[in-house]
Write a structure and sequence with these properties.
This protein has about 500 residues and is an all-beta fold. It has one helix and 37 strands. The strands form eight sheets. The chain has a twelve-stranded antiparallel barrel with strand order 26-27-28-29-30-31-32-33-34-35-36-37.
Length: about 500
């Protein structure tokens, strides 16, 4: 009963301060030559909201209306599930007025009282603690869950600016373990990041204990770990492929055994849940820190020539600054990319470049490796860039062949390429990228350079600038992250320009 004064206060406050349910639009006015008439542009954070002007529907946002009579007009923005935004706009002759509004979601209150007290309340995917919850008005799906209990689902109507009530008592869940999954069947413990460990994940319904053991080829215990009592549904163990001396174990097939049991006094369907699997330690699966050639793996100016070491997926963000060496104004931007690789010899990705001067470009790349034996690497590369095709921001589509010599730890690569360019005019150009890369399992570095020809229709001649870059990549152990530092110069008769940047990527 103590909840009612608090709820009454909420409702009283909602009525007394009704203006808080809507926000004040921003209005901008600028002069325009409109023959004595006016124009009105309407923008809103809810795309598709209906625009009413003087009690007539005029369309949906974003909306531009011209030929309006000067004077006062009633503007209403309306969308399902939101409060109306109402404003009186006075239009002056020969002006363009822009109204930008933010609609507020219609809300009500749900008073939740559940046993046990630690239970979480989830309304349409959003998690809340128990108590009086402000939530979007309307029919809602409410899930109540707590570890060790059977979750319950309700369909509840939350009235606008009023209170609905929910009271429930969860039943204790019988113990069960399920969803056993091994993260990878083969791995190299020398690799950094998540590529150097193997994990077993599983789910439980209530408190219990687990014992995790790794056995060698002859049945000897190499690693063991226990956990419990569990306090959450999701559980996992991991092994870094190392023995008791901390050194990587020899290549071979090892056994993982996992035993899960309930805590005493908890009802269970089975006394014990067991999981076992073989796992291969393979030192030939080499993954070294590597930077980005556009949205693909490689150095700044040349893609990798060798086949990917393992299957993987990577998302990356890279911020940079650049400017002429004479000290005049600098600019910068950010690049976002996502890509994947297959051990059988394929990698590719897409990217988005955003510059501080409000120019942008989308990139795409695909590389297919031939898988040559020995110290040789060969890949076919197709890549493209889509932009506004203005000076300094070209669009292109080009093909190349990346040729490498060495190993994943030390190699050189060359990539001659040819393609069509659009930078004001269309042209065909040739180019060459080159890189020298050296790496360990956790730290890598590369030096790369690139040059492109003038349009081949005018004969073959080199175009300025010639780009050079140094890149350092760091992949910490047991983390799905890698970090990149880059510095470079674009050389030309004058003036040359510098560039520098830092990036972070997540790999899986």
């Amino acid at each position: 009963m103590r909840r009612f004064p608090f709820i009454a206060f909420i409702l009283a406050a909602a009525g007394a301060f009704a203006f808080s349910w809507t926000s004040t639009p921003t209005i901008q006015v600028e002069s325009a030559s409109l023959g004595g008439l006016s124009s009105l542009s309407v923008r809103c954070d809810v795309r598709g909201a209906a625009v009413w002007l003087d009690y007539q529907v005029r369309g949906t946002v974003p909306l531009d209306m011209t030929g309006l009579a000067p004077g006062a007009h009633l503007l209403v923005l309306r969308a399902e599930g939101y409060y109306d935004s109402v404003v009186t706009v006075t239009l002056a002759a020969d002006t363009k007025t822009t109204v930008t509004a933010s609609l507020q979601v219609k809300t009500g209150f749900l008073d939740v009282k559940v046993q046990p007290p630690q239970a979480k309340v989830i309304i349409d995917g959003e998690s809340y603690s128990q108590g009086v919850i402000e939530a979007p008005a309307g029919q809602r799906t409410v899930v109540v869950k707590a570890f060790g209990y059977v979750e319950q689902t309700f369909s509840i109507y939350i009235p606008e600016r009023m209170v609905a009530y929910l009271s429930a008592a969860l039943e204790k869940a019988p113990f069960e373990a399920a969803g056993f999954a091994l993260s990878r069947a083969r791995f190299n413990p020398r690799n950094s990041g998540l590529k150097g460990i193997a994990s077993v994940s599983f789910g439980v319904s209530a408190a219990g204990y687990a014992d995790f053991v790794v056995l060698g080829p002859n049945g000897e215990r190499l690693y063991e770990e226990s956990s419990g009592p569990f306090a959450d549904w999701d559980q996992a163990f991991s092994w870094d492929g190392r023995g008791g001396d901390g050194e990587p174990v020899p290549d071979g097939t090892y056994s993982i055994e996992l035993s899960v049991r309930p805590e005493a006094g908890i009802e269970t369907l089975r006394d014990r849940y067991d999981f076992s699997s073989g796992i291969v330690v393979d030192s030939t699966l080499i993954v070294v820190p590597v930077g980005s050639y556009g949205p693909m793996y490689g150095a700044v100016y040349a893609p990798a020539a060798f086949a990917p070491g393992v299957d993987g997926f990577r998302i990356a963000a890279f911020g940079w600054a650049d400017g002429p060496v004479d000290g005049s104004s600098a600019s910068g931007g950010v690049t976002l990319s996502a890509g994947g690789s297959l051990e059988r010899g394929l990698d590719g990705g897409i990217g988005l470049e955003l510059r501080g001067d409000e120019t942008a470009a989308a990139t795409i790349g695909l590389r297919v490796a031939a898988g040559l034996p020995g110290p040789f690497g060969l890949s076919a590369v197709a890549e493209g860039r889509l932009s506004d095709a203005t000076a300094g921001n070209p669009s292109y589509a080009r093909l190349g062949a990346a040729m490498g010599l060495g190993s994943r730890f030390l190699n050189v690569a060359l990539m001659p390429h040819i393609g069509g360019y659009w930078e004001g005019d269309a042209s065909v150009r040739a180019g060459l990228g080159a890189s020298l890369s050296a790496s360990g399992y956790a730290v890598g570095a590369s030096l790369s350079a690139s040059m492109i020809s003038d349009p081949l229709s005018d004969g073959f001649s080199m175009a300025w600038p010639i780009g050079t870059a140094v890149e350092i990549n760091l992949a910490p152990a047991r983390l799905p992250l890698a970090f990149t530092l880059m510095a470079g110069m674009d050389w030309s008769p004058g003036p040359s320009s510098w560039k520098a940047g830092i990036g972070i990527s997540g790999g899986f």
